[in-house]
Design a protein that fits this description.
CATH architecture of the largest domain in chain B: 3-Layer(aba) Sandwich
Helix content of chain A: 25-40%
Shape of chain A: globular
Oligomer: heterodimer
Number of helices of chain B: 13
Strand order of the largest sheet of chain B: 10-7-13-12-14-15
Strand content of chain B: 15-25%
Distance between the termini of chain A: 57 Å
CATH class of the largest domain in chain B: Alpha Beta
Radius of gyration of chain B: 23 Å
Largest sheet of chain B: 6 strands, mixed
CATH class of one domain in chain A: Alpha Beta
Structural class of chain B: alpha/beta
Distance between the termini of chain B: 36 Å
CATH topology of the largest domain in chain B: Dna Topoisomerase Vi A Subunit, Chain: A, domain 2
Shape of chain B: globular
Order of helices and strands of chain B: HEEEEHEHHEEEEEEEHHEHEHHEHEHHEH
Chain lengths: ~650, ~375
């Protein structure tokens, strides 16, 4: 027996258990590979303070002699290129071909990746399914040389095998390009690469994303927010968030010579005084050597760490997306009438700080609103006005990364379900998502997002997290409720006048027939109309109808889109290019926002204090908004590409 | 029948036209047009123990036009009134459903229908009956023919002679309007009238020629008897002095059917005068019968929650306050079981005809 027991390498383990990492089926595997590569690129760019430009390219690799349609293909080449800082030559093999190697695991800082498994696992998956190595080009700056690598992983030793390594000429001054060849399946729709990239663009409006689909189409997601998220600080672990085993390990690894200084220097929020207090409570000498603390004593130390009152961890280690950026992202990608965004103040679970953000996009957008002059089709019994019973869509993010799988296991989804949306004027059946044309955005930013599995698909539902999500959703819902009620109020006055007008015709006609058809009907109608208007407020009704403008009633961080224009945080909306030109429009278009970017970006933030109630758009904005909203996406080629306007076209705003 | 009609119809038509006048005169005075509609609910009925009838109270509800909640109903009321007036003029009768179709259309320049379902138009017809104090028959609206009669009685219907003793086991289908001007009772030699809740048991009695042996009229309304059946029973009771016995299932709904026949219903309390038969007797199935007739316990059905709730409601009705009735209902509640008439077949297919009813009649075993 003993002879048969031997060490299992991590790589071997994951070869057998690749579903744990999100490679369970070819479709998901393709997405996971794209996701890991893009996550790495974005993390690298942001860390280096570079506004990310990322290009994703999916190509079909023909396995036989005949070309295959993308939907039928089984093998794909994924190319992800960024403008990041590049990777130094020596590190390249290990970054891409050694599992559990990375810069992110051992630190307490918010980033997309956490464990250092992702990209190398993707490489390993490619290696397993196609036998092809990972190809990497990286350049750390215009003056450095570009290096080309082909690497594979030795699954037994979990060590990289370098197949090729040479200097090449590369057009890009800086950045990294990763090419993976994997077995996969390309399918549009839910949980597809397309959806993931679109959602990524919503939560990361500071990223310019270009996507070449396997069908040869090019989709551009322009940058609409021109500031990098503030770089998150690294923090030390908080005593409340640590497990006993981890404490034992820290005691062994510490550089401190006394327990007291160990506590004070290796944990956050523990002062020297507090450290001594903890030692006293644990009946351990503050001057004892950390390595000599006995397991039993360590246990009492652990207990007293948990019971001592310690300040919550600092929260500057997290960088939330921010209300403006969320608004900008939602507005860019989702058509609607009402947008709002909420960032909660930081909170703590198990000693890990986190921030919850929520956003809402509601409505269909003026273009899709039913036309009032539509021919009336008489309705048969049992038919209704075709009120759609569409359910809301929840888009979930953890550290800016969209989560597409296991929705129902996710804390965010549960919080959406348990929120009583009916209070906010949205219908909701028991135990279901709210109904209506609505997208609900939830983001959790944390130094350590508690996923339910290694493939990072659903957020575990800790009470503290659940509570924060619920509070954020309630606030967003409350604003939506105000918006809907305001609209409803105007509409109900309108309807009131309207129904009387409609019914007067009927009543007068009936009276006329009853009286044998010789009634002065016009006179009677006029008399009744007069009563109707005196009873429903007469001319004032027109005001209630919004013919005179009333701004969004103190709704912070919201955008309201009407046929006339945009109200609310118009600055955010202004940055979003008009929909119009479809995929593959000229480079000139893309250059335009970039030129204007830094200045306007700052102005937008500076001129819109959060507390100030939003105001109605100026005439100019309104016009721009109109142009934007009514621009015909089909006529994209002719879309206004004006030098004076930053609303040049790039991506049609899509609704899913 | 020809002489009486024009005058009477004229009165109803006048009432309907009067509704248009309400609107016109209110409009002239810049007032909100309003109708007063008596409330048809338990809160507005009372039991008159002297007459043995349920009578409608005085409470009324205003239906006004310029009120968002009522505007549509007001408009619908006018449309129904118009349709009813049309019937008067053309001297036609029609069904509730036809009224619904007649008044249904899409309002000009809108997606809105005047009526979406028949459930909207039916109560309006009842509203008009009550507020205009016109009977449904006078409004020329008929219900479905869902009743049968067999026995030694002869009717004149549209000039045809209908001898209900010579119509086999199927009997005569009771029309929904049985007022003297539509249905004439030419001869009746029966000794009593048996009103059976269920068509199946009526069939059993008819097939066994129970009516011939006991010289009675058999009448059924297939469940809750419709107006025609109730009105016909009342006429036979009144004009030919037939005692009326009611045979229903032993459950709260059976008790209520009996009470509707006897005192009138809550919804149509205004018609009790014309329909109720205060002297009607409850012949069965009584909650005492299973024991008396040795019905095995296993042919009973457990009372469900709805049954229990309903039974408790009945206990509170003024017209069920007689000690015998309180005892009857409480006995059912205590046993926790209800029995269908059909359960008698457990003893013998003809048990109802040959044993149960003969013994009941002999022992005069009924409740008042």
């Amino acid at each position: 027996m003993g002879a048969r027991q031997r060490e299992i390498s991590v790589s071997e383990f994951f070869t057998k258990n690749r579903h744990l990492l999100g490679f369970d089926n070819p479709r998901k595997a393709l997405l996971t590979c794209v996701k890991e590569a893009v996550d790495n690129s974005l993390d690298a760019c942001e860390e280096a303070g570079i506004l990310p430009d990322v290009t994703v390219k999916l190509e079909v690799v023909a396995t036989g002699s005949t070309p295959v349609a993308p939907s039928q293909a089984t093998r794909f080449r994924i190319t992800v290129t960024d403008n990041g800082p590049g990777i130094v030559r020596q590190q390249i093999p290990r970054v891409f071909a050694k599992l559990l190697y990375g810069s992110k695991f051992h630190r307490m800082r918010m980033s997309r990746g956490q464990q250092g498994i992702g990209i190398s696992a993707a490489g390993m998956y490619g290696q397993l399914t196609t036998g092809k190595p990972v190809k990497v080009i990286s350049r750390t700056g215009p003056r450095a040389a570009a290096h080309y690598f082909e690497v594979q992983i030795d699954t037994k030793k979990n060590e990289p095998l370098v197949h090729e390594n040479r200097q090449i000429d590369w057009a890009q001054p800086q950045g990294t390009e990763v090419v993976l060849e994997v077995e996969g399946r390309y399918q549009k729709g839910r949980a597809s690469v397309d959806e993931w990239l679109e959602q990524t663009s919503i939560a990361n409006p500071h990223v310019r994303l270009t996507y070449h689909t396997p069908e040869g189409e090019q989709k551009s997601y322009p940058r609409t927010y021109h500031e990098l998220p503030p770089s998150p600080k690294e923090i030390k672990p908080h005593p409340y968030g640590i497990e006993f085993g981890a404490l034992l390990k820290m005691l062994q690894d510490t550089k401190s010579h006394t327990v007291a200084s160990f506590l004070a220097s290796d944990f956050c929020r523990v002062s020297t005084a507090l450290a001594e207090e903890i030692c006293k409570a644990a009946k351990i000498s503050p001057t004892a050597k950390p390595r000599e603390v006995k397991p039993q004593a360590a246990e009492t130390l652990y207990k007293s760490l948990q019971t001592t009152k310690i300040m919550a961890p600092p929260t500057n280690c997290i960088s939330p997306i921010g209300e403006k950026a969320i608004l900008s992202g939602l507005y860019k990608q989702i058509k609607g009438e009402f947008y709002t965004a909420v960032s909660r103040p930081p909170a703590v679970y198990r000693g890990y700080p986190f921030v919850i953000e929520a956003g809402l996009a509601f409505g269909k957008g003026p273009e899709e609103a039913p036309k009032p002059q539509q021919a009336a089709v008489p309705l048969a019994e049992g038919e209704d006005q075709g009120n759609d019973t569409e359910q809301a869509r929840v888009i979930r993010y953890a550290n800016r990364v969209p989560l597409l799988y296991q929705q129902s296991a996710c804390a965010t989804f549960k919080a959406v379900l348990s929120t009583t949306w009916r209070n906010y004027g949205v219908s909701q059946s028991r135990g279901a998502l709210p109904a209506g044309p609505m997208v609900i955005f939830v983001h959790m930013a944390s130094v350590w997002v508690p996923f339910t599995s290694e493939s990072k698909e659903a957020i575990a539902d800790y009470d503290e997290i659940q509570k924060e999500i619920t509070l954020a959703l309630r606030e967003a819902g409350r604003r939506l409720g105000i918006f809907l009620r305001r609209r409803e109020r105007a509409a109900s006055e309108f309807r009131r006048r309207n129904i009387f007008e409609l019914y007067i015709e009927e009543v007068v006609a009936a009276c006329n027939r009853l009286k044998g058809g010789n009634l002065p009907t016009e006179k009677l109608k006029e008399q009744l109309h007069k009563i109707a208007s005196s009873r429903t407020g007469g001319l004032k009704t027109d005001e209630a109808l919004g013919k005179t403008g009333a701004g969004p009633e103190g709704l912070p961080h919201s955008i309201i889109v009407t046929a006339e224009g945009i109200e609310g945080e118009t600055e955010v909306a202004e940055h979003v290019p008009a929909p119009g030109a479809g995929a593959g429009t000229s480079a000139a278009v893309e250059a335009a926002p970039a030129k204007k970017a830094p200045a306007t970006g700052k102005r937008a933030v500076a001129t819109a204090p959060a507390s100030k109630p939003s105001r109605r758009a100026s005439g100019e904005t309104r016009k721009a908004g109109q142009q934007e909203l009514f621009a015909d996406p089909a006529g994209g080629k002719k879309a206004p590409v004006r030098k004076t306007s930053s609303k040049a076209a790039a991506v049609p705003r899509k609704r899913k | 029948m020809a002489q009486a009609k024009p005058k009477k119809n004229g009165a109803v038509a006048k009432k309907l036209i009067g509704m248009a006048d309400v609107v016109i005169s209110a409009a002239q005075r810049s007032k909100d047009p309003t109708f007063e509609i008596p409330i048809r609910a338990l809160s507005n009925v009372s039991f008159n123990p002297r007459k043995g009838l349920i009578e409608m109270g005085e409470k009324k509800q205003a239906r006004t036009f310029f009120n968002v909640g009522m505007a549509k109903k007001f408009m619908q009321t006018m449309l129904v009134a118009d349709a009813l007036a049309e019937l008067q003029q053309a001297d036609l009768t029609t069904s509730l459903r036809e009224i619904y179709y007649r008044t249904k259309h899409t309002i000009q320049d809108s997606h809105e229908n005047t009526f979406d379902t028949q459930d909207e138009s039916d109560p309006i017809i009842e509203d008009l009956e009550v507020s205009l104090i016109a009977l449904r028959e006078e409004l020329h609206v008929r219900a479905e023919n869902s009743g049968s009669i067999v026995g030694p009685v002869v009717f004149g219907d549209d000039g045809d002679r209908v001898d209900c003793a010579k119509l086999g086991k199927g009997g005569y289908s009771v029309p929904s309007i049985v007022e003297p001007e539509y249905l004439e009772i030419r001869r009746c030699t029966a000794d009593f009238l048996l009103l059976v809740e269920k068509g199946t048991q009526w069939n059993r009695l008819s097939e066994d020629k129970f009516w011939r042996r006991y010289n009675c009229v058999l009448l059924t309304g297939n469940g809750q008897p419709p107006r025609g059946v109730r009105r016909l029973a009342r006429r036979l009771h009144e004009e030919h002095k037939l005692p009326v016995y009611v045979l229903v299932d032993n459950d709260p709904w059976g008790y209520y059917i009996y009470s509707v026949v006897k005192q009138g219903s809550i919804n149509l309390a205004f018609e009790s005068q014309r329909m109720a038969i205060p002297k009607a007797k409850f012949i069965g199935l009584s909650s005492a019968d299973p024991e008396r007739y040795e019905l095995p316990r296993n042919v009973g059905i457990k009372l469900n929650e709805k049954d229990i709730t309903r039974a408790k409601e009945l206990l509170n009705y003024q017209w069920f306050q007689k000690p015998a009735w309180q005892q009857e209902i409480k006995r059912m509640l205590t046993s926790g079981l209800k029995y269908e008439l059909d359960a008698l077949a457990n003893k013998d297919f003809q048990y109802l005809t040959k044993q149960y009813l003969p013994r009941k009649l002999k022992e005069k075993d009924w409740l008042d």
